[in-house]
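Internal tracking record. Fields below are filled automatically when a chain is submitted to the structure queue. Please do not edit lines marked as system-generated. If the sequence contains nonstandard residues, flag them in the REMARKS field before resubmitting.
Queue: standard
Priority: normal
Entity type: single polypeptide chain
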Amino acid sequence: MTLEEKIGQLLICGFDGLKPSDEIKGLIKDYHIGGVILFSRNIKDPVQTAKLCNSLQKISKTPLFICVDQEGGKVSRLPKPFTQFAGNAAIGKSNSVKLAYAFGEITAKELKAVGINTNFAPVLDVNTNPDNPVINERAFSDNPNSVSRFGLAVIAGLQDNGAIACCKHFPGHGDTSLDSHYQLPVVEHKIERLNEIELLPFKHAAENDVAAIMTAHVLYKGLDEKYPATLSKKIIHDLLRKEIGFNGLVITDDLEMKAISDNYAVGEAAIGALSAGADIILVCKEHRKQKEAFEAILKAVKDKIISEKRIDESIERITAVKKRYLKDTITDEKKIKDIVGIKEYRNIASEIIS
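SYSTEM-GENERATED OUTPUT FOLLOWS
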């Protein structure tokens, strides 16, 4: 790979429309991006979604991560006839590992049926703050052991069935009173408390082969007084990589969220995240910012602010995950109706009471 191709692989980008836009086509062809993220704005029905994913894969020289936030409950991008699940809090209340696994399994099968290979789920945040405006019912529980138990079951359900799981938001967004989409939350806890509660589900996920972990745009003063987790070498490199021993993919949450964008330019944030040890930069909307992130990383490598060795470490991890999960990237549109939203899946979903 050329340096430009390597840097492209570090980016996952979003776009507008139900078909590949000129902007996303350009990012895939000219900037060699490693993946795309789909939102409700890109998804109308299963067949349209499959056509979109197949079109995107055909444009790319290398298999693309095609990602979505399909957590169930209020963060679900896939409309009916995709199976509708009640979400993590309902899984937690069901107290059933079997149902948690089934949610992951069915979600993976439906995602794969339409060409989506990566799910930014499950949420492993421990819901310890009842006033949390962003996590709340997206969490399985306020108990870290319960979060671990159900989280591992969902991860296994997804990955046993060929979908990449990306748990979030490391090292924990559960005890915040601000939403990082709009402001930078601050957590004051010391490492001893974090080890007991927030970090426990992520440690168990890392030990059990989760493919990817997403960082939180949260400032953890007990770990790093200066930088939020997404930009913190102390949190990504020292804690997650070295202490916890995680060698899978580290993906940033969207750098356009205000917790980051109000405090850092997108290029500065991209360089900071990679320097801290992240592998993949997520820029979900603005085409200008997506190109800006690419150009900033390229310049940083040429100026020796980031070493090419640091880039190569991420490319190794990205390549390993793509080889494992992205063997068949083109999906068969004729098989969709036999998989998506079938009665068996709807019946299982109805067992998870909201």
